[in-house]
Write a structure and sequence with these properties.
single chain; mainly beta; 2 domains; 15-stranded mixed β-sheet; 14-stranded mixed β-sheet; 2 helices; 31 strands
Length: 427
Amino acid sequence: MATHRPAHARSGFGRYTAPRRLHPAHAAPSPDGVRITRAAGAIIGGGVLASAGLMGLITTPAGAATISGISPPFSSLGTFVTDPDGSVAGVAGGGGTLLDPAIAGAEAGIGASGNLDNNTAFSFSFGPGALTASEAGAGGHANLSDNTATADATSALGLSGFFGTALAVAGVGTFANLSDNTATAWTYGGFAAVTAGSGTFANLSGNLAWAGSQFSVVNAAAGAGNDAHDVGNAAYAYGLFSPSVGAFAGLGDDGAFSNNLAIAQSTFGTALACAGTGSYTISVTPGASTCAVSPQVESITFTDAPGSNNMATAGSVAGEADAFAEDGNGNDAAASAVGGGASAALADGNGNDAAALGVAGGSADAIAEGTNQSADATAVGAGSTGGALASGGSSIVLATSGLGGWSDASTSGGVWTVSINGGTLVS
């Protein structure tokens, strides 16, 4: 287990500030954002320019399927190209305008000196300003086969600025096993970006990333890293009228980051789930926390040991929820927030469980560190706070409540406390 800080550096019960949004609007996680940006530029920008606004087909000496379309004039229920190795790229859509065209681009089986067989990339863009890019199986000196990337974007007609952007990347890199990855991005009037299987000198296979967005900014990534074994990870993220939702599983270098699961969902709020990501940053600035190293003012960055079989779930309705399951194996973290509540749950080590619930303005934090520890905290009502820390053989709990509120906290060490309506009843 990594020895990067004392327990109180994370918990700071006096008072811990829960991590907020994952990224600023329209940002994708590093290093995946670089790849997605390159894909969008090369597939869509290059393809559209090469085809002068019509359908374009480009093949490389190694054999590849590349296609792009822009509306107007393009309108299709599906146009596909197939390369000699069985990779398929397809685009569909329409409904664009001269001022705000709908653009779709896809490429599959791109590269040289590798197995580039049977990849599938499909992009669908409909409505003014809709933009999609998908890339499956791209790189060199690697097994880049049987990857699937799907991007689907529909603009919200009549709502200025809600054009819809979806970006999907599956199985990209060099000198690695980058096979059987699946990435799906879907949006209506929002932004969705996903990456499944990305890196070098690694086994990055069998990963799945899914992002759904309705008037939201949503990111998901599974299985990305270098010199690592990042296999069988899954990340699911969904947002409805949410400024930021992110789910990240199995992202790390120089170790095993496998079979991790991250799920994040929010309606009118924010949610962040990190499972076996190797590093993350907690910031006091709303919108600045992330499942990666991100040095900034008033923040703490943690670099953890490799981790597998971890699960992080974060869900909110008009609240802020953040869950981290890191720095070891078999950890579970669950954070929920409703009605202006905030929650943060961290399970760090091996076999730990942390759960936090913030409701109606309450703020709850739960941290379980070490081995086979558990921590639970609940806070309901404005002015209510709940905090639980279980670290090794030590436990700390606190519960304060506002008028009409309620809070509680407990740990596996048998320590617990409850506060109702502004007073501590038991401790």
